[in-house]
Specification:
Helices cover about 0% and strands about 50% of the residues. The protein contains no helices and 15 strands. The chain starts with about 30 loop residues before the first strand and ends with a strand. About 5% of the residues have low confidence.
Amino acid sequence: SAPDSRSLDAGENTQVQVTVEVPEEYEPGTYEVSLTADAEGVRPAQDVSQLEIPGPDFQVTGVAAPTSVSAGSPLTYTAEVTNTGGENATQTVEAIFAGETIASRTVTLNVSETQTLAFTTKSDTAGRVDAAVSTEDDAQETVVEIVGQEFENAKSTGDPHITTFDGLSYD
């Protein structure tokens, strides 16, 4: 873009936005940028400003799962992972269900890019369990209710005191 040219009267101030291109070989971090501008142009100055170069920041949003599922049935839950940082990067994303890591994926995201991930598991134990997704920078979870397996087949044996459910006899 064209240089910004302004005239100022004595004692007058103005604000100018400066864009600094950071070489790719620089690591994320904080760097000093010192500039001064006067009638002679822009040159290094004594006054120091801070320029922060943010690294990647993989944030987990939108963890979604069914509110309940039958014990032993497959359960799929999803999460969105977005790189809200200032650098393209690759991170490991883990799915944790009932306190156990059930899957681990390597995810590469550009700045502001989002990816939706799906994880499938099951639990044979009834109760409330956490379904979570974590990155190096963030973690989110939701709760799933695992309900006990219900009988699917009931048959009369002819005896009014005995009924079978899924092949088991009850009096």
